[in-house]
Amino acid sequence: MNRETVRYEVTDGVLVLTLTRPENLNAFTVQMADDLEAAFDEASADPEVAAIVVTGEGKAFCAGMDLSSEGNVFGLDEDLQPTLADLYDRFDDPAIVSGVRDTGGRVSLAIYRCPKPVIGAINGAAVGIGATMTLPMDFRLASEKARIGFVFGRLGIVLEACSSWFLPRVVGMQNALELIYTADIVDAERAKDLGLVRSIHPPEELLDAAIALAHRFVDGRSPVATALMRHMLYRNSAFASPVDAHRVDSLAMYYTSIADGKEGVAAFLEKRPAQFTSTLPADLPDFLAETDAIR
User: What are the backbone dihedrals phi and psi of residue 286, each rounded to the nearest 5 degrees, phi first?
Assistant: First the structure.
């Protein structure tokens, strides 16, 4: 695929996606949304990719939406008058996709439906969409120079990229409300205190730390089991009842027990490293389609 704003590099099973508009502090554009959505969908289908790390080139992660664009800077079609029904009935209609649907949300949903671990390596400023796009990532590691801000209220707009769903789950409702009400830009230490980032690193060590963490997640692990557990935590935790979670758990346990689970048990009994053979997405159980695992 042609990637104008994102670099796609796979080494030893870890994909590093780098935002590549350093002259603009990696400010977000419609093209970047398209590139990121396509890159995550490509990585989801690529059996050579086991985990994904996202970072920015230069001194910023992503300084928010590029507000210098002509017309509607968010890439929306101001001639339309969309309704909520349109977002249900015409969700995939090209006119709605390009003219109404939030570009950051398209990226967040691509990350959400990805079956592989995703780590954000926040190397500098992450403001607006630069902050919200990291929320569906499983972990966020921050440079000591990172600055993170949900500044939407200062611009007279609202939080986006599905962050009204993700942010309270990451930091809790009270902290989420404080972050959006104040629109403050917080440093790495405050972000860690809030639970927004997992760990803080010297700038020169950040990317290596993120890649090392990715290897801890995937080396010697069943890719199908990992994908299923990612699915189960994100989706099952939103169910109304644990009975619904039990239904999904039961099928996931059944299908892993007759596949990679056999090798895992044998390796344990024989006291040797497991050699799992499943691949993604080919070996994901069919029942996932019923639970919206991969859209």
Answer: -65, -25
